[in-house]
Queue: 3 jobs
Job 1
Amino acid sequence: QVQLVESGGGLVQAGDSLRLSCAASGRTLSGYLMGWFRQAPGKEREFVAAIVWNNEIRYYANSVKGRFTISRDNAKNTVHLQMNSLKPEDTAVYYCAAQPPFQSTYDYWGQGTQVTVSS
């Protein structure tokens, strides 16, 4: 089992930055794909970014490419999402998720952290 706890959300103005963190516990994350997703009110959950734990492969949604950066801290078993140039349309609950090696689904999810961007 993997437990995920997000932090770092808040209320900011358009153009500001925020850094989300996802602290993982329960087991080693070697080989895991760690992802960030978001869900805005009335909309379906959507993919934001992902990183393979053991290497530098990263994936980004087109809507955040160039503004958001996903990274990991191996020593702290933590994944970060640096969000720059925030826009009102980035407002959502942001979730951290973990996909085990050789699996095709994210099996573990955090509780989410709210990000609100005012115009």
Job 2
Amino acid sequence: QVQLVESGGGSVQAGGSLRLTCTASGSSFSIMGMGWYRLAPKKPRELVARITSDGSTNYADSVKGRFTIAKDNAKNTVYLQMNNLKPEDTAVYYCNAGYTTADLRVHDHWGRGTQVTVSS
């Protein structure tokens, strides 16, 4: 079983920056892709950014040019650098990892979430 530990959320004013970090730990697993999703009140869960094992990325249109996702394969860690934050970015951000285990099964796992609050 893979564990995901998230950090880096907090409260900032509009225009500020935050960096989220998510580290996967466990045994005998291979990451296929990791990403960040967010859930805001009265809104559906939204993909923010995702990066695959080969480095391919995709972003929500609303964050393109402001957010950057990166990874450190050796540390099984993904980062989300969030710049020029806006009040509408306020949400709980969840890390997600898709991975395979030694038995070749595919798994999908979520972190507990970290709150990001942007004030105007």
Job 3
Amino acid sequence: QVQLVESGGGLVQAGGSLRLSCAASGRTFSRYAMGWFRQAPGKEREFVARINWSVGSTYYADSVKGRFTISRDNAKNTLYLQMNSLKPEDTAVYYCAADRYGINSYDYWGQGTQVTVSS
């Protein structure tokens, strides 16, 4: 069992930056692929970014490519999402998730952290 706890959300003006963190319990964190997702009001949850466990390959949604950076610190069991040049359309609840088997199917989810970008 893995527990995920997000933090770092808040209110920021357009063009600003935030860094989200996701603290994971469990000794096998370093072997999981990890992802960030978001859900805006009235919309379905959508993929934001992913990082694999082995060589740290990263993948991004087109809407955030060049602005967001996903990273991980396996020694600290922590996943990060650095968000720069934020836009009002980035407003959403952001979730981290763990993919145990590396098959792009996420088994564990955090409770989410709210990000609000004002114009």
